[in-house]
Design a protein that fits this description.
globular; 4-stranded parallel beta sheet; Dna Topoisomerase Vi A Subunit, Chain: A, domain 2; 4-stranded antiparallel beta sheet; DNA primase DNAg catalytic core, N-terminal domain; alpha/beta
Length: 208
């Protein structure tokens, strides 16, 4: 569904409102190694006083999808592991690529992650331009065209079967280099355990 200007304005306003409550997610962000600056750049927030239609997302982390034309979608993540579902989206929203602004700021190479938190980790904390998709089955054909001009595309593959299948599927679409994470790990968990040097060593092997 194509959004009109007023819909994007409403998403922008909701994003700004929720961002003022980001302090409520401090414990969660600290546990994930996400700095205040990284949270600010990603315009993360917390749904404390929901906008109309957002009542089901109360208490969740808000993750806006930001493009040159503004916010085009918001996804909502539970702040506590016991809460299901972990992620929620707005009714009728189409799956989109996350962090697309990194496509323009990237040089010869770019990364791809599963999930927004992992994408923020690679882009803001590790310092490698990166885009993301909400899940291993969320890749769309036109995403391939967006990344076709990069000399190297790093896929940071989760250490599970869907992550491995995601990397394999992308290798049929793009000249990818897979950074396979250990079993049971994802980008953020490895960043928390090992820091950014772990990833720079992995990527540096390919002399980017």
């Amino acid at each position: 569904m194509r959004q009109n200007h007023s819909q994007r304005e409403l998403l922008d306003l909701a994003t700004a409102k929720y961002a003022t409550n980001i302090f409520q997610a401090e414990d969660y962000l600290t546990s994930r190694g996400i700095t205040r600056e990284a949270a600010r750049l990603a315009r993360l927030g917390v749904v404390s006083e929901p906008e109309v239609g957002h009542e089901a997302f109360s208490g969740r982390l808000s993750i806006p999808y930001i493009t040159k034309s503004g916010v085009v979608d918001i996804r909502f993540r539970a702040l506590h592991p016991a809460i299901e579902p972990k992620y929620m989206g707005m009714t009728g929203a189409e799956t989109k690529m996350y962090n697309v602004l990194d496509i323009e700021r990237a040089g010869d190479y770019i990364g791809i992650c599963e999930g927004e938190i992992d994408t923020i980790t690679v882009s803001s904390l590790i310092g490698i331009p990166c885009v993301g998709v909400p899940g291993a089955n969320s890749w769309k054909k036109h995403y391939t065209r967006l990344l076709a001009d990069f000399e190297r595309v790093f896929v940071f593959a989760d250490g599970d079967q869907p992550g491995k299948e995601f990397a394999t599927a992308l290798s049929r679409e793009l000249p990818v280099t897979t950074i396979q994470l250990p079993d049971g790990e994802d980008v953020n968990s490895m960043y928390v355990k090992e820091g950014s040097s772990y990833f720079h060593k992995k990527v540096g092997t390919y002399e980017v």
